[in-house]
Amino acid sequence: MTNFTNRTDNSERILDQLEAGLPVGELPASLYGSKEIYEREKRNVFGRCWVFLAHESEIPAKGDYVLRKVGEDNFVVVRDEQGEINVLFDACRHRGVQICRADSGNTSHFRCPYHGWTYDTKGNLIGAPLWKNAFGGMDKSSNGLAGAAKVGSKHGLIFATLDPTAPSLDDYLGGMGWYLDLVFGLNEHGVEVLGAPQRFVIDANWKSGADNFSGDDYHLGTLHKSVWEIGAFPVSFQDNMMGYHIQASPGHSLSFSMAPNDDEPGPKFFGYPERVAETFTSERISEDQLNVARRSRVFVGNVFPNFSILALPMTEDGANFPPTAVLTIRTWQPVSEGKVEIWNWFCAYKNMTEEEKQRSYRAGLGTFSMGGSFEMDDTEPWITVARTGRSTAAEVLDFKLNYQMGMPGIGIGHPVDDWAGPGKAFWTRYEEGVQRNLFKFYLGMMKAEPGQWPALTFDED
Ligand code: FES
Ligand SMILES: [Fe+2]
Predict the structure, then answer these.
(1) Which residues of the chain have a pLDDT value below 70?
(2) Superfamily of domain 51-154
(3) CB of 41 within 8 A of CB of 334?
(4) Model pTM?
């Protein structure tokens, strides 16, 4: 029997395969290359979920703005005269012309280049040329820019959703909020981004990034073997595989490399300099959160759908410098089923010295950036995942990918019940439940009717 038929929409068939395959750890390869799946993702995932847009430190002053994406669409993230953050669809109400022509800047208004309609930083229509003759009597207030349905922020991370039926940001993040606290909220200063984001396009599917940052630690020993050879990372591969995989809540997954106890030598608090680590206290977070952060060498995680976070000790030059903490946040910005634009920001705690920030930034550039050693390793295989995903062979053969690591009876990864934080925890990072969690929620979103939401907690599940 063959699957090679003239289907007009393959997405339903591929999602049915995903639904049947998830419980046994098998995913249809076409998920990573199907055009129909991608079209459905734009509507059902990016058109509905909370997506990350910017960090508040990128727009500190009134009138500051950056141009960002929700799915493929441009949105202006702007701080208005009252200091509120607005997320405005970058399209003039008159004919839909793009009104914002710069990546970032400061302005009191946006003026459309076509006929000159002018909007304030809240998106209100405030004027147009020859107003009296052209539009005198028309209601200005109902002709402002369209905005995201909801905007929210946590630790300065700005998210928005286009769906008015979306849960609150806190409910959407669920257990993931606890983990964001212990990465971004370790002291009262919080973090800031260092410069503008790097952007680069690769011929891969956006889900490869989300899948990898949900906790694919297994690839480190093969794909990134050279990183150990040049001494860029201070923990051996085997020790680094010790730690927890966490399904924080449906869709959101993460992974910790963790020292077995507090006395273990090696980096603490992801490698932050001791002077900075001394300012990390349980004033704003719990003792449990602080203890987890103290023992952590690496944190890597993904907020569904496409926002990833990585904190780890890295060095720009193993021969001359000890490793220091690198904190990168990134989005896997979809461009098509076979292209993703990676947006990559480096962050630092605000109370780090300029020199400490520069070292962290340079170590990040050398490892997780367009020309970084880790990044270049990662992107090449992802390009071939997308090629497999769009292949005729994957469709005709019903080619399945294996996601079985850590399932009962497979490998040493196993659930633990004494984990201090929210979610489902597994010991040792030889485990792929984190990815199955990502794809289960993904399936729920892809199959949901408008207004319907898949379970946001494991209790409802
Ligand atoms: S399209 Fe913007 S003013 Fe006409
Ligand atoms: Fe990697």
Answers:
(1) 1-8
(2) Rieske [2Fe-2S] iron-sulphur domain (2.102.10.10)
(3) yes
(4) 0.96
